[in-house]
Automatic annotation (TrEMBL):
<keyword id="KW-0810">Translation regulation</keyword>
<dbReference type="Pfam" id="PF00806">
    <property type="entry name" value="PUF"/>
</dbReference>
<dbReference type="GO" id="GO:0003729">
    <property type="term" value="F:mRNA binding"/>
</dbReference>
<protein>
    <recommendedName>
        <fullName>PUM-HD domain-containing protein</fullName>
    </recommendedName>
</protein>
<keyword id="KW-0677">Repeat</keyword>
<dbReference type="InterPro" id="IPR033133">
    <property type="entry name" value="PUM-HD"/>
</dbReference>
<feature type="repeat" description="Pumilio">
    <location>
        <begin position="40"/>
        <end position="75"/>
    </location>
</feature>
<dbReference type="GO" id="GO:0006417">
    <property type="term" value="P:regulation of translation"/>
</dbReference>
<dbReference type="GO" id="GO:0005737">
    <property type="term" value="C:cytoplasm"/>
</dbReference>
<dbReference type="InterPro" id="IPR016024">
    <property type="entry name" value="ARM-type_fold"/>
</dbReference>
<feature type="domain" description="PUM-HD">
    <location>
        <begin position="1"/>
        <end position="139"/>
    </location>
</feature>
<feature type="repeat" description="Pumilio">
    <location>
        <begin position="76"/>
        <end position="113"/>
    </location>
</feature>
<dbReference type="InterPro" id="IPR011989">
    <property type="entry name" value="ARM-like"/>
</dbReference>
<dbReference type="InterPro" id="IPR001313">
    <property type="entry name" value="Pumilio_RNA-bd_rpt"/>
</dbReference>
Length: 139
């Protein structure tokens, strides 16, 4: 119940201290609390990914959530009209990297297929170089 109060009081983890509180709650791995977070953040993962502090929370969600939760986050990211711009964002690019690391099977393949058509442009972006320098696309 106390986690619910924290979530309601601090609706978005956009401020540094709130970000740490939400990450702490995620680390508790209390499934009922995690499900509350899934519902609170759903539809907002792209926006959260593009903010300094909340992008860390989305990365943590990709690590802590089960396959279904990860799929929701990745599907939301892939639904962005200009996915390549999301990858060039100073904060969201780390979320994309985390999605690549924490996904497997068809989910990972969908991410890789969304990235590859833009490879020539993205390789020159200072924020995307890590995606191509690591073996994330070959998993």
């Amino acid at each position: 119940m106390s986690a619910w109060i924290v979530i309601q009081r601090w609706h978005w983890p956009a401020v540094s201290r709130r970000n740490y509180v939400v990450q702490f709650i995620l680390d508790s791995k209390n499934q009922s609390v995690v499900m509350i977070l899934v519902s609170q953040f759903e539809g907002n993962y792209v926006q959260l990914s593009m903010q300094k502090f909340s992008s860390n929370v989305v990365e943590k969600c990709l690590k802590v959530f089960g396959e279904e939760g990860r799929a929701k986050i990745i599907a939301e990211m892939l639904s962005v009209h200009r996915f390549e711009q999301l990858m060039q964002d100073p904060y969201a690019n780390y979320v994309v990297q985390s999605a690549l690391v924490n996904s497997k099977g068809p989910l990972h393949t969908a991410l890789v297929e969304a990235i590859r058509p833009h490879a020539s442009v993205l390789r020159t972006s200072p924020y995307c170089k890590r995606i191509f320098s690591r073996a994330l696309l070959k998993k």
